[in-house]
């Protein structure tokens, strides 16, 4: 019964998905339309793992947010997406709750908090970070709120009655603390380097180190691939600036040393006895 999700996972692993004449009918309305800088509605109502009513904006404050759209009964692809995210998180150097938030939302309106709670328990245990309970949230909601969220980020999916499953693409998104779409990372394997740079950039350098800032000068995000690549022009500029800085420092050092030598020579002449 997992053929739908499996087929999507093989077909839609990278890039913006476009309709093709050879696609099965179930995949016709499935894909991801990039909506970079789009604002998600922060007043959308959902329920958390405990069944308490929440607003999407409850998780958007001063930290970037990783958004994952899945459904909890998914037999294959959604688990691969969450597993791929988990693999990227462990060596990330940042921690959910402390440096960023993760919001996982089920796009199946029939699912409730009990499924969300079980899924959260599984992934918190595997993640193993102390602050993760307050940093990784598993939500469920009604059809209207789900559609408004998925439409805002360009996530298109469809329900297949024959299999009682959803056909959908695979990706995670990084949003700014204000709720604007910043980055898409496609497939089921997400580069830790790309995810880290995406979080730093989405946070406007509120998190990360000087090394991360330097990396962002040398790498740029390519929306067509959902990856960061070396920006040759930027690298040349940085190397040029470093070269100029290095030459300037050397000249300053050489000038100071020359002055000290002249001062020492003048002092030596002053001390010589008069014959």
Order of helices and strands: HEEEEHEHEHEEEEHHEEH
- Characterize the quaternary organization of these chains: single chain
Strand content: 15-25%
Number of helical elements = 7
Q: Structural class of the secondary structure composition?
A: alpha+beta
Model description:
It is a single chain. The chain is α+β, with helices and mostly antiparallel strands and 275 residues long. Helices cover 39% and strands 19% of the residues. It has 7 helices and 12 strands. Strand 11 (219-222) and strand 12 (227-230) form a beta hairpin. The chain is elongated and about 100 Å long.
Features:
single chain; alpha+beta; five-stranded mixed sheet; 19% strand
In short:
The chain is α+β, with helices and mostly antiparallel strands and about 280 residues long. The chain has seven helices and twelve strands.
Topology:
Elements: H1 3-11, E1 31-32, E2 45-47, E3 53-55, E4 65-70, H2 77-89, E5 101-106, H3 113-127, E6 136-139, H4 143-153, E7 155-160, E8 165-168, E9 171-175, E10 181-186, H5 192-202, H6 210-218, E11 219-222, E12 227-230, H7 232-271
Parallel strand pairs: 4-5, 5-6
Antiparallel strand pairs: 1-7, 2-3, 4-9, 7-8, 9-10, 11-12
Helix pairs in contact: 5-6
